[in-house]
Amino acid sequence: MTETRARKRRRAAPAPRPPKTPRAGRAPRPDFELSLLTRWGLRPEQQRTLAVIATVAAALVAVAALVAVIASLGSYTPPARTGGSVPERDTALPQVFHGWASPKLFQPVADRAKDPKPLTAKEVFGQKTLPGGKKLSLKLVASQVDADCSAALWGADLLARVADAGCTQAARGLYTTADGRYVGQYTLLNLRDGEAAGELVEALKTLYRGGWTIPLESPQAAYPAGGYTEAGGYALGHYVGLVWLGRADGAEPTPKDDYVSLALTLRGAEKALYRRVVAITGPGG
Q: Which one, of 187, 248, 193, 196, lies nearest residue 222 by Cα?
């Protein structure tokens, strides 16, 4: 009985299904294939190469177009810096600088509003020879008065300072001794007032390292590039006088080189300011 039931269950069990076989169809398309190029007979790898070439060509065309547009806009040249804001190569600089405040004697010319007459070359440099002690004299070899102070100075910080000080004139005189041993330049700046003059002299105690006066040119005298020179700044009412001295050979001074006497001699150009003080105060002022 049991055996008969077991046979019936085996006959009723469904037969196992055969494994599915993949349906026949088209092979998967390659990673890159364009139907148009396929119809033209190009294999997928050829189509891929052609696409790379086309992309590079398109990029080159775009670059060429951009260059053409830039060229059509024209070229831009930054405006040249005027005046002496950029020194020439090997511009001479003083190695030593001292500054002095304005004496009370120049109080009458402490305000340009009370002393409005512009400086002239004849007024400041009319004396062609400045006599000094120890048979030392300085001969004028070049002079110039500029209404634009940046024509006589260089150094961005210095130019900014004199502009803030209301500089309207820079008078320069270049001198040398009879034997040509020394060269000196006196520069007189016409500023707004005594306060501006005093502040400029004080600032020059550090500013002179990166900006100074531009030496006048003359075949009779010149500052050697890199040579040793000394300078001083003097507040004189609303003016600033700059004294600059050195040996023509650029050597450092020896005990025989009397720079103190040279500086006093060069300051003979300041006589023009004494005359202005007298013009305001009178002979007995």
A: 248
Token pair listed for 82: 């005027």
Q: For 221-251, what is each residue's pLDDT tens digit?
A: 999 888 999 999 999 999 999 999 999 999 9
Other Cβ atoms closer than 10 A to 278:
13
In a domain, 27, yes or no: no
Q: Verify that 49 and 127 share a domain, yes or no.
A: no
Phi/psi of residue 276, nearest 5 degrees: -70, -40
Share of the chain above pLDDT 90, in %: 64
CB 153 within 8 A of CB 83: yes
Domain count, the chain: 2
Per residue, what are the HEC states of 35-90?
HHHHHCCCCHHHHHHHHHHHHHHHHHHHHHHHHHHHHHCCCCCCCCCCCECCCCCC
The structure's pTM equals 0.70
